[in-house]
Each structure stands twice: as C-alpha cells, then as structure tokens.
Design brief:
alpha/beta, 6-stranded parallel sheet, 13 helices
C-alpha cells in the first residue's frame, strides 16, 4: 500500500479507502488506484486487516483426517455455505492426535479466525484445550465427534437411530447372532452406535452376547483382527454390524480369506456410506451420515453464534437423521435391491 501511495502521490488512507470502494473517494482516483494495484500484483493482507479490526472473514475447520468421503464432504458443505456468506476456510487435520489438535487450535487463534468448527480426534478425552477459544470469545461449533459437556454447540447425526436401523435390517434378514465391531467408547458416535445395536436386539427379544461385541480402532486392520476373534468363538456370528466402514471392509477381507461367504454365511453392514462400500465385492450395506448437510448445518450454527454476539445463547444441538443403504453384503441370498430403490427406512 505504501508503494501504491508513493507512486500515485496520495496518502495510504486514500489507497485503503479506494481499495475498499469507500464513498469518500472519487471514481477517477479509485480507477487509478485499482489500475496500478493490478499492474503491481497487489494482494491485500487479510491477516493484518483482521488484527486491526479484531475480526476476520476466515473460518477455521479441523477434522481428524481428510481421507475418504465423510470428512471431505463435510468440509465441502462448510466451504460451500461459507463462500456464499463471504468467508474463506482454513482447514487443519489432527491426524487423530490430540497433541496436533492442540497445536492446530493455537494456529487458528493466531490467524484471528472468526470461528472454529471442529470434529475431535480419536485420542481427545477432554475439552481443556478448547477453553482458550471460549475465553477469547471465538464462536466454537463441534460436529460429528463430540465430547460430552456443558455449553457445547454441535451438529451430530442420530447415530443411535442409524445403528438401530442397521441391526434391525440384519434381524429382518433372519440373522440371530449379530456381532458388533465397536469403536472407542469415549467418543459419542461409537457409544451411541453401540446403544442403537443393543436397542435393536432388545426390540426383537434377542439377548445380547457380550462375546459378540469387539472394540477396535475402526481401521481396516482393526476390522480384520476383530473378525478373526469372532470367527474363533465356539459359536461364531451369522452377521456383523460395524460402527465404521473401514472396519467393515477389514472384516469382509478376513471373511473372504477364510472362505466364509458374504452374505450367505455372514451378513455384513457398515456405517458412514464411504465410497469403498461401492467398490467392495460384494457392495457393503451402510448407514449414510448426511455429510454435506452436516457441514452446512455446522456453518449455520456458527452464524447464529456470531449474530448472538455477547447476548446469552443457550446450548444447541442440531441432530440429523440417518438413512440405510441396503446392498448385497447383507441381503441373504445375495440379491441386490432393485435398481433405483430408495434407501431402507
């Protein structure tokens, strides 16, 4: 800006106002400033502007990882809504590491972001490192993975209902010994999916068998190890509901390597409706998490916090409803639903 002011023989205030289309600057001066700015490839320093004003149009988003469909689609939903509202998005990954999550929070606060939208890492067990965000008055919204606590604003899926739909579907296929690959139980999503599984068994007067519930890290390798443990039981399961698609894929790989037919011998259902469910053979039945809608809802909740300002704002949780996509991995006899069929209710 100093270079522009020197070359045109005007003040930096004039340059600043011309670039922001201020009404006090005449058309001829604005045109001259914009023409020279373009010639010199001038780029405004948004961070400096944010520091001057104490606010910015930058939105911080943090996810555990970006691989796969779910978090990528959530971020796409956030970016789409944010762009329409004039915000730019800074994205960070925690890589399932709470130490990296803490460092990311410091980075985003240093960048003077207008708000932070976050899905916590698998290793996050408390909110202490988020207290600094609140103390600085930066709007904070959690989505998908949420630790329980007071004054938490969040957007989540009805994971319990999704798990209920998945397990009920297996019961409707005639399965009776339904195993569950459970994720880390300190995270809301996996705790609620386990409860939905138990609710569905209870609704059909099926007594849960604790030996059929195996906790794993929801990776492909974790799913393989958990499936091997289940097959070693004296009375192995005839179906598996996995709390995540990657673990479901691992279970499928292990079953095929042992010569166990899916779904004829063991039916299989996952959770998240990742792209891998459509390339696996057979295609894997899965619960869809409404990912883009979740991202858009998280941004809307952020804007409500901004509009509320310092006024009292009651804790709010937005709950999205799941859909079950029925595919060959769970249909006894291997039959696919007819083309164009709607997701199971």
């Amino acid at each position: 800006m100093a270079d522009l002011a020197r070359e045109l023989g005007v003040s930096m205030t004039t340059i600043s106002r011309a670039l922001s289309d201020h009404h006090s600057i005449g058309p001829a001066t604005k045109q001259a400033v914009l023409k020279l700015a373009k010639k010199l490839n001038y780029q405004p320093n948004h961070l400096a502007a944010a520091l001057r004003k104490g606010r910015s149009k930058l939105l911080g988003v943090m996810v555990p990882y970006i691989e796969g469909r779910f978090f990528a689609s959530v971020v796409h939903g956030i970016e789409t809504a944010a762009s329409r509202a004039g915000y730019s998005v800074i994205m960070c990954q925690s890589n399932e590491d709470v130490a990296q999550e803490r460092r990311n929070i410091e980075t985003l606060l240093s960048a003077q972001v207008a708000g932070i939208l976050v899905s916590v890492s698998r290793t996050t067990r408390d909110f202490r490192h988020f207290e600094k965000v609140r103390k600085q008055g930066v709007p904070l919204v959690f989505f998908d993975r949420v630790l329980e606590g007071d004054h938490i604003n969040s957007v989540v899926l009805n994971d319990q209902q999704g798990a209920f739909l998945a397990t009920r579907h297996l019961l409707e296929q005639g399965c009776r010994r339904i195993a569950h690959l459970a994720g880390p139980q300190h995270l809301n999503i996996y705790k609620n999916r386990r409860q939905g599984y138990l609710d569905a068994l209870s609704s059909s007067d099926t007594t849960p068998d604790e030996s059929l519930i195996v906790e794993c890290d929801m990776s492909v390798e974790g799913g393989q190890a958990a499936m091997a443990q289940l097959l070693a039981l004296p009375n192995p399961p005839d179906a598996v509901f996995s709390a995540g698609d990657s673990a479901a894929l691992g279970a499928l790989q292990l079953l095929k390597s042992r010569g166990v037919r899916v779904p004829q011998d063991v039916a299989l259902v996952g959770f998240s409706n990742e792209a891998l469910t459509l390339v696996a053979e057979p295609n894997i039945t899965s619960v869809d998490q409404r990912c883009e809608e979740m991202g858009q809802a998280a941004f809307r909740l952020f804007t409500e916090l901004v509009e509320a300002g310092s006024a009292p704002f009651s804790q709010r949780q937005v709950v999205l409803q799941p859909q079950l996509f029925e595919r060959a991995s769970s249909m006894h006899g291997g039959q696919e639903p007819p083309p164009g069929a709607q997701p199971g209710a």
